[in-house]
Design brief:
30% helix, FAD/NAD(P)-binding domain, 474 residues, 3 domains, Polyamine Oxidase, Chain A, domain 2, alpha/beta, binds flavin-adenine dinucleotide, 13 helices, five-stranded parallel beta sheet
């Protein structure tokens, strides 16, 4: 039985990993010259380095991403961090980690109460709102309040909104408080911070993403019998309206298949099906209403180390997160330097601003925090903005997201934008790939479970918290 997977982002890759070793002949078609899709890299000729379009971070609560990395050998290239550093607007550093003594959901309470850049009354009011949020039953309808509306109804001050709620939610959801769904915001806090002691810990790749996919993963796929076709865009998926029969490539090569998983971005998915299939796929009608949100990565090479910290959260500034990507030795062609990356999620307000202006603001923000940056020379800088980095988690978004199983038995959809209950993340993409592979196996009469459960909840969290409530995947 031959299955075609169209799209070599994390969703398509997870589908391939899920199906491998189960008797399928798997052919994966990726339009670009490298795997990884939005979680990819480019070659920067000045530094001579492969550079991720933008730093990608997972969390311990991303159980399917963790499983995908473990199965394929990628886990060795990730480093887990349990200590976060928040830098307040005045430049002070606040350590954020789980208390060794308190069970979930109280384990991060002491760190929250020590965030001294927030007035004491705001810290208490945030703790109260978190408690209410965790106990809230939400219907994520289109006309439901945004998380910004709800927080204001909970009397959260502008300071608390800017210095706490935005700091956590804008990077986790890739969207502003006044646009983001309350149900998804609640999921971030419940699943990411409250339900389980280790959920908040972050996983950071130590090598460029292209190296992970182009090296370790491609070797694993080849050894597992998955044939990867790069620079092989699918032009059309064909069928008779009840079954998919072939994938036609851009050069008109026709590949006959027994099943297909289409794992392209939501903006491309409708155009790929021939008329007979498109007429049956009414679930795709809503994908046009899915909006995008931008993320910007600013890459900076200094002549010296400005901080040894692996990462830092910057509060009340344009820069949101700083990642330390280490020292590069340098050679005749490109200078040595210390490479840092600053990430700005939901970066709409950068549109139209000159790049140099943004880079100067970021460098001066870093200099306000780290004295070493004041004397450092900036050797090279690049700013990369992805306008359609993620889908916008607006209220009601889950109603626009189709399930992986389509009305056509031998066709499944995958992609972070399909119905996973997760926002636009690597975890969402991997979940969708596993669910799509499950759908194809079910249709062929060999049902298998691939989806990995969430982290187990602590005993007190089980007693106190509601489940996270965004569209369940089953
Ligand atoms: C700047 C930025 C920062 C991010 N930061 C994070 C983060 O820190 N943590 C996190 O969890 N997530 C992050 N994300 C989100 C994450 O990258 C995505 O959720 C995830 O990679 C989506 O994977 P996907 O497979 O669903 O889609 P994609 O990665 O978009 O993959 C789709 C693939 O299909 C291919 N394709 C399209 N058309 C065709 C065709 N006709 N034929 C063949 N192939 C085709 C594309 O080339 C692409 O490779 C970030 C995204 C961006 C852009």
């Amino acid at each position: 039985m031959k299955v075609a997977i169209v799209g070599g982002g994390l969703a398509g890759l997870a589908a391939a990993v899920g199906l491998s070793g189960r008797g399928w002949q798997i052919e994966l078609f990726e339009a670009r010259r490298q795997l990884g899709g939005r979680a990819g890299s480019f070659h920067d000729p000045v530094s001579g380095q492969w550079v991720d379009h933008c730093q990608h971070v997972g969390m311990a609560c991303c159980t399917n991403l963790v499983d995908f990395c473990r199965r394929t050998g990628l886990a060795a290239d990730f480093r887990r961090g349990s200590l976060l550093h928040f830098f307040g607007p005045e430049g002070g550093c606040y350590r954020f980690a789980a208390s060794p003594w308190l069970p979930a959901p109280l384990h991060l309470g002491p760190s929250l109460l020590r965030l001294g850049y927030l007035p004491r009354r705001d810290r208490l009011s945030i703790a109260r709102a978190l408690w209410r949020l965790a106990r809230l039953a939400i219907d994520d309808a289109e006309d439901a309040p945004t998380v910004g509306d709800w927080l204001r109804s909970q009397k959260q001050s502008d300071v608390a909104m800017e210095r706490f709620w935005s700091v956590v939610l804008v990077s986790a959801l890739g969207e502003e408080l006044d646009r983001a769904s309350l149900a998804h915001a609640r999921k971030v806090f419940v699943d990411g911070f409250m339900a389980s002691r280790h959920a908040y810990q972050i996983d950071i790749p130590q090598t460029p993403l292209s190296e992970l996919y182009g090296g370790t993963l491609q070797t694993w796929l080849a050894a597992s019998g998955v044939t990867v076709h790069l620079a092989a865009a699918a032009r059309r998926v064909e069928g008779d309206g009840s079954r998919v029969s072939a994938v036609v490539l851009a050069d008109e090569t026709r590949v006959s298949v027994d099943a297909a998983i289409v794992a392209v971005p939501w903006r491309r998915v409708r155009e790929i099906f021939d008329q007979a299939l498109a007429a049956r796929l009414s679930e795709l009608a809503t994908t046009e209403q899915i909006e995008s949100a931008p993320i910007t990565g600013v890459h900076l090479w200094f002549d010296r180390e400005i901080t040894p910290l692996p990462h830092a959260v910057l509060v009340g500034r344009l820069s949101q997160w700083l990642f330390n990507r280490g020292r590069r030795a340098g050679d005749e062609a490109s200078p040595a330097g210390h490479y840092y990356q600053v990430v700005i999620s939901a970066s709409r307000n950068l549109a139209g601003r000159p790049r140099q202006d943004v880079i100067e603001q970021i460098v001066s923000e870093l200099a306000e925090i780290w004295p070493a940056a004041r004397g450092a020379r900036l050797l090279h800088a690049r700013m990369v903005s992805e306008q359609a980095a993620v889908f916008s988690v607006r209220p009601g978004i889950d109603r626009l997201r189709p399930p992986q199983q389509t009305a056509i038995a031998n066709l499944a959809l995958a992609g972070d934008w399909t119905r996973t209950g997760w926002p636009s993340t690597m975890e969402g993409a991997v979940r969708s790939g596993y669910l799509a592979a499950e759908a194809i196996m079910r249709a062929s009469g060999q049902p298998q479970r691939l989806l990995v459960p969430d982290l187990p909840r602590g005993w007190l969290a089980r007693l106190l918290l509601r489940s996270s409530g965004t569209g369940d995947t089953r």
